Amino acid sequence: MNLLSEVLKHDVFPALGCTEPIAVAYAASMAGREVGGELTEIRIDLDPGVYKNGFAVTIPNTAGERGNLIAGVLGALIQRPDLKMEVMSGVTDDLLSRAKTLIQSGKAQLSCDRTKRSLFIDVTVTTDQGTARAVVEGTHKNLVRLECNGRDVFQSDGVSDSGLDNEFRDVLKRMSISSLVDEVEHMDPTDHATIEQGIHMNLRVCQEGYALNRVGQSISELVARHQREDSIVSSCEIMTSCAVDARMAGLNLPVMSSGGSGNQGIVAILVPTLVGRHHGLEDDVIIRSIALSHLMNSYIKCFTGDLSPLCGCAISAGVGAAVALVYQQAGKDLGKMTLATNNLISDLGGMLCDGAKEGCSLKVASSTNSAIRAAHMALNNRGITQLQGFVGTTAEDTIRNLSQIGVIGMSLANHEMLNIMIDKASGTG
């Protein structure tokens, strides 16, 4: 198995809008296309992670509409699952008007299934032609079941994308950071091109975000007022937070994701790109470092989960970026990579994920700053060791320890965050 290729195939892809509500739209689009006809009713059932992540985020091409429900209804109306995670490019004014009418009439329902522990999207669409159901599970594009008018159109078996996805994740989870570095040293031209595409895509988005007058511009103003140093650290914070500003505002431009998350893709790709270019490194070195950043991000999420109570933009993508920066300057120095991992997790290990929204820009700015600082300290042989807190002897140990805290220790916090969101949605919070 070419592990890097598998990670890029499953976890690194263009996404227009937050990946969770867009995955809802994709599933709904699949069901809508299968049954055809005029949409009369839709029911959407989500796991807690998808429910939380899509709760408050702006959906592209909707003039500011937010959340999973509008995304799902639009997906069912668009009926273009071939667009995959860019399905919102099919929104028109007429479809948006029809979606709002359906929601206002009470014909669109959204619920959260707290029994689900991994990504789960179950959409049932009813039209004047009948009823269809689509189930996406495990990863954002992984269709495991499609039904139409009482008959099975498709049902996952052991050879499906789900099986392949589980296989690659099982392999990735057993890897060491040393072996992940070896993977990037033997990159094929197709993977190289995918990473280059992600650089261009994400740089374009951050240029658009500056005009929104949000987090990125605020950091820029601090620099202009000499309240922040005009440095590569500030420049990176401005550009990554501008990209997230644009994305969370529903800008009609895709980003290249990492670990199935667009915001994580912004950190994992842009931080190594901008710092590498600042130091005048060759493009090939930067490309390999970004490949390692993607691998590290996906590796950590094998332990913490795709939709964790912990902020993936800050922690898994931040570690990926920090390790990538060490690789750029020191190559395969596992001691320094361990220090970088420990430094970032010690800094941001407790940051909560309360769903995708404008506030993610603040977390990405913190992640960017921490990644650069963590790498700088590590390159100078400074950092947090196993003598402190939950940090382990190796980076792998620290990641496993963090996973225990996130999966077990933070489960109650995640439950309470979800309660707050459900109460807000019902008007009681």
Features:
429 residues; alpha+beta; 60s Ribosomal Protein L30, Chain: A; 2-methylcitrate dehydratase PrpD; six-stranded mixed beta sheet; two-stranded antiparallel ribbon; 17 helices; 8 strands; 57% helix
Rg (C-alpha, Å): 21 Å
Give the helices and strands as they follow along the chain.
HEHEHHHEEEEEHHHHHEHHHHHHH
The number of distinct helices, counting runs of at least 4 residues, comes to 17
The stretches of 5 or more residues where confidence is low (pLDDT under 50) are: 158-164
- What structural class is derived from the secondary structure elements? alpha+beta
Largest β-sheet summary:
6 strands, mixed
CATH topology of the largest domain: 2-methylcitrate dehydratase PrpD
CATH architecture of the largest domain: Orthogonal Bundle
Please tell me about this protein's structure.
By secondary structure, the chain is α+β, with helices and mostly antiparallel strands. It folds into 2 domains: 16-163, 60s Ribosomal Protein L30, Chain: A, CATH 3.30.1330; 175-420, 2-methylcitrate dehydratase PrpD (Orthogonal Bundle), CATH 1.10.4100. The protein is built from 17 helices and 8 strands. It has helices spanning 3-11, 19-35, 48-53, 68-78, 93-104, 161-173, 177-184, 189-209, 215-224, 232-248, 262-278, 283-304, 316-330, 334-348, 360-379, 395-409, 411-426; strands spanning 14-15, 39-46, 108-112, 120-127, 130-137, 143-148, 151-155, 255-256. The strands form 2 sheets. A 6-stranded mixed sheet has the order 3-2-4-5-6-7. Strands 1-8 form a two-stranded antiparallel ribbon. β5 and β6 form a beta hairpin. α10 runs antiparallel to α15 and α14 (334-348) packs antiparallel against α15 (360-379). The longest helix has 22 residues, at 283-304. Residues 158-164 have low confidence and may be disordered.
